[in-house]
Amino acid sequence: MSTTKLQHIPFSVLDLATVVEGQTPADSFKHSLELARHVEQLGYTRYWLAEHHNMPSVASSATAVLIGYIAGGTQTIRVGSGGIMLPNHAPLIVAEQFGTLESLYPGRIDLGLGRAPGTDQLTALAIRGENMHGAHHFPSDIRRLQQFFSEDNFDSKVRAIPGEGLDIPIWVLGSSTDSARVAAAMGLPYAFASHFAPTYFMEAIKLYRDNFQPSEHLSQPYVLACVNVIAADTDQEAERLSTSVKRMFMGIVTGRRSLLQPPVDSMDNIWNIYEEQAVNQMLTYSFIGGPGKLAHDLSAFAEKTGVNEIMATSHIYDHQARLKSYQLFSEVFK
Q1: Which of 293, 334, 118, 310 is nearest to 227 (CA)?
Q2: CA separation for the pair 249, 231 (Å, rounded)
Q3: Which residues pair with 85 in a beta bridge?
Q4: What are the residue ranges in the chain where pLDDT is below 70?
Q5: So what's the pLDDT on residue 3?
Q6: Is there a contact between 292 and 3 (Cβ–Cβ < 8 Å)?
Q7: 267 to 57, 222, 244, 271, 306: CA distances (angstroms)
Q8: Is the dihedral of CA 179, 181, 184, 186 positive or negative?
Q9: pLDDT attached to residue 90
Q10: Residue 239 DSSP SS3
Q11: How far, in Å, CA of 332 to CA of 167, rounded?
């Protein structure tokens, strides 16, 4: 299969500021900035950070703060949220935070919005309190955000300063068909979490494209797919490195979460057949291998899905191996 299709597809990064065994969030942030500078040099389009809570291995909970740190340490790459979980926040606060970021780093900030809590139900209750059913207001909350960003809001009694009149691209994030309907109806770009929720991916992007209503923001549907990528010089080495992310997903499946573990030569003594099947299902859209396998598999993926952009998330224990993986991934597109 030809890789020519990949040469026209932008490629980007999703980072969860993953905390690895034996290190701290402070180490993760330092590594995130190094990675952002590295991928900026490699021609990546955007660098997104995700809001998650109450997870020992994920340090990107204060997402807007981290976006400022990454944008401040880079020059040209777009930096944004993949995403901000909107029902966790008042739209006005999000408008002010991202208005501040866009004022500091003009033309470089993206606002990806999700409606899940990004955590378990108990933690969601601690965050949302009385707003526990905020997900039902997701479309109206997006419209309120758009109003705060619009120049027409200048004579309103409630204004977002900074934020008003700024052009901050809003993306709808999703892992189901519900979000596809929202993105289509509002004429916004759609980013799908196929890196952990592959089940509805094909159905959701078809629904989005079929129902897309052009808007002042976007004339044609635009689909970004987030996938897992573990690239190394050889298929064998990539498979070995991938045992870290497999153990991470096993923690999600079993409820026994931990910091990102070092790779192992074999998973045979670590999981049982049911855990293996569950993890492999979640990792359906994962690209693990050397340059040749990666190019072949990504080309097939692009051909099958017709996505407009591919975003890679790479949970790799060793920082240098992670930098190398992102380098190899970028070479597939060139």
Answers
A1: 310
A2: 18
A3: 114
A4: 1-4, 117, 132-135
A5: 52
A6: no
A7: 20, 38, 10, 6, 34
A8: negative
A9: 93
A10: helix
A11: 32
Query: What pLDDT digit, counting tens, does each position of 153-176 carry?
Result: 999 999 999 999 999 999 999 999
Long-range contact pairs involving 274-280 (C-beta distance under 8 Å, separation at least 24): 275/250, 278/253, 279/246, 279/249, 279/250, 279/253
Q: How far apart are CA 30 and CA 59, in angstroms?
A: 12
Which residues share a beta bridge with 312? 13, 227
Residue length, the chain? 334
Output the pLDDT for position 312. Answer: 98
Query: pLDDT at position 116, please?
Result: 79
Residue 128 pLDDT: 75
Q: Which two tokens stand for residue 49?
A: 């950070």
Distances (CA, A) of 327 to 5, 229, 264, 291, 298: 19, 11, 23, 10, 15
> Which pairing describes strands 190-192 and 170-174: parallel, antiparallel, or unpaired?
parallel
Residue 158, judged by CB atoms within 10 A of its CB (0-12, 13-18, 19+), counts as exposed
Q: What is the DSSP letter of 262?
A: P
- The span from the CA of 227 to the CA of 207, in Å, is 20
* Alpha-carbon dihedral angle through residues 234, 236, 239, 244, given to the nearest 10 degrees: -90
pLDDT at residue number 125? 81
